[in-house]
Design a protein that fits this description.
Chain lengths: ~400, ~130
């Protein structure tokens, strides 16, 4: 049994339903997530106990609303505390979590709420495509018509060429994650799909098709972290974070040495694994950043769940499906649960909190002790990896 | 000697407009930057010289953009790729004058200075592309 030393402990977590929330503003959506986290933990007195907030939020263009750190603290009933927004595109709240850990470990804040939010569905697909593309290099990628799916398609093609990964294997990620999402009452899409559905869907950027892309979703998520020695004052069932890693890479995909893996993920994972004293084979379940199905295959390899080039076979053998030896994206992932970009990193932590406290219901991974989350920004210029352990 | 042009992305595109593909070479460590940078990411030197680079290279990876941003919708579907130039630098761009079935990783491509136009307010840069 792994008994890694906790860095911080999660005492509560909250998440709005992911989906289409007509008529709600970002701040109102976040208040829903905060309310769940507060009510799950009756011993918590938010105004007295919570000393700082870190929030992941990518785009002010959606609502003409910047300055969202303090806005969200205000609407979560926490005005007064220092509130900081972190922006790392789709990795914004993975980075918020990392920042919250810095704050607790520094001793400046005993208890911190970290979270994220994005309200996207009231905009047209063209607008959302434009806003999301801002996470990639402007002068050489966006300027030349390379879209966000396009960047992952460039990596997918390179991977297929180097290792023989197939479009079918890539599509199997979508089938698996939709199956998991069908078991998650908070997922955006709660229905299973077939490989034929994926293969028959229209190309967005060859070899990636519509069903290979994550969803445009509204949602908010948060967790409350504190010093490990304080956790039991608030809950009998904390979840411990035992490793954290964050790394960066060139903003331009074209400047990287390899196109078949993400150096940022590898660096962040190495730091987190070493801190936790855990090896990849000890991970019982993971939530990884499947912004596009192909990305999940690459993440398996970068996180050490299989050898380089064998990610396609891992999903094909069903090893990352519920019941397999390392279930990945039991929440449904970005593909089926949805991808409100700023909320995704802490939504992964929310799933880990449920799984490691046996509250994941139909999608519960039995006897899970150690979990991992991996959240990336853009085409991988940011990666944040966290490792979680059940309380013993 | 005349004044040296600034080592900026803006200047890189100005050279392209003149039909020249230019990179900067760090005078301290010798690293070549394409696009140029004002600070060498290897040795932190700020001293560079311009070198002209061949526009010939080979295709490292590609995709076909079917769902395009508003600005590029008139061109869709179009091919984009990353090309490794003869000197080892990689650069992305659109690939034109080739049928989709003929695109192949490893194929030879050459940078074409002729502009592919898409309307926009900023920046006023020429849009190069690659051709067989
Ligand atoms: Zn140098």
């Amino acid at each position: 049994m792994v008994n890694a030393k906790p860095l911080v402990s999660i005492i509560s977590a909250g998440m709005s339903k992911f989906g289409k929330h007509d008529g709600l503003l970002t701040r109102e959506l976040f208040a829903i997530a905060a309310a769940e986290a507060f009510s799950r933990c009756p011993k918590l007195q938010p105004k007295q106990d919570i000393k700082a907030m870190f929030i992941g939020h990518m785009g002010e263009a959606y609502e003409h609303q910047g300055h969202t750190g303090s806005t969200l603290a205000d609407w979560a009933g926490l005005a007064g505390i220092p509130a900081t927004r972190t922006e790392a595109a789709c990795g914004s709240s993975g980075v918020a979590l990392r920042s919250g850990i810095y704050a607790v470990l520094s001793g400046l804040a005993d208890m911190v709420i970290v979270g994220g939010v994005e309200k996207m569905t009231h905009r047209t697909t063209a607008e959302v495509t434009e806003y999301l593309a801002m996470a990639s290099d402007y002068p050489f990628e966006q300027f030349h018509g390379i879209t966000f799916p396009g960047l992952f398609a460039l990596m997918a093609n390179a991977h297929m060429h180097a290792y023989g990964t197939t479009e079918e294997q890539i599509g199997m990620v979508a089938v698996k994650n939709h199956y998991h999402g069908s078991l998650n009452p908070k997922a955006h899409m709660q229905k299973e799909i077939t490989l034929q559905n994926v293969m028959g869907s229209k190309y967005v950027a060859w070899p990636l098709k519509l069903y290979d892309c994550s969803l445009i979703t509204d949602g908010a998520s948060c967790i409350i972290i504190t010093k490990p020695e304080l956790a039991k004052k608030y809950t009998d069932q904390p979840v411990h974070i035992v490793g954290t890693g964050q790394a960066s890479d060139t903003i331009g995909l074209y400047e990287r040495k390899t196109l078949t893996s993400l150096q940022s993920t590898k660096l962040a994972a190495k730091t987190a694994y070493e801190m936790a004293g855990v090896t990849p084979d000890q991970i019982n379940l993971a939530e990884v950043h499947d912004c596009f199905t192909f990305a999940e295959i690459m993440h398996y390899e970068d996180l050490g769940f299989c050898k380089e080039g064998e990610g396609g076979k891992l999903v094909e053998r069903g090893e990352t499906r519920l019941g397999g030896h390392i279930p990945v994206n039991t929440s449904g992932g970005l593909k089926s649960k949805g991808h409100p970009v700023g909320a995704t990193g802490t939504a992964q932590a929310y799933e880990m909190y449920l799984q490691l406290t046996d509250q994941a219901e139909k999608r519960q991974v039995k006897d899970a002790q150690i979990g991992l989350t991996q959240n990336i920004g853009g085409s991988g210029a940011t990666a944040a990896v966290h490792i979680y352990r059940r309380d013993q | 000697m005349s004044t040296v042009e600034p080592f900026t992305i803006e200047q890189f595109y100005k050279f392209l407009q003149q039909g020249k593909l230019m990179a900067s070479k760090c005078q301290k460590c010798g690293k070549i930057h394409l696009p140029p940078r004002p600070l060498c990411d290897n040795c932190y030197s700020q001293q560079f010289s311009w070198i002209q680079v061949s526009g010939k290279g080979k295709l490292v990876t590609y995709t076909i953009i079917n769902v395009a941003p508003a600005q590029f919708q008139a061109l869709a579907p179009y091919a984009v790729g990353i090309v490794e130039l003869e000197n080892g630098q990689k650069i992305p761009g659109m690939i034109q004058d080739i049928a989709r079935e003929q695109l192949k990783i490893g194929m030879a491509l050459t940078l074409d200075f002729g502009t592919c136009s898409a309307p926009q307010q900023w920046p006023a840069w020429p849009r190069y592309c690659f051709k067989p």
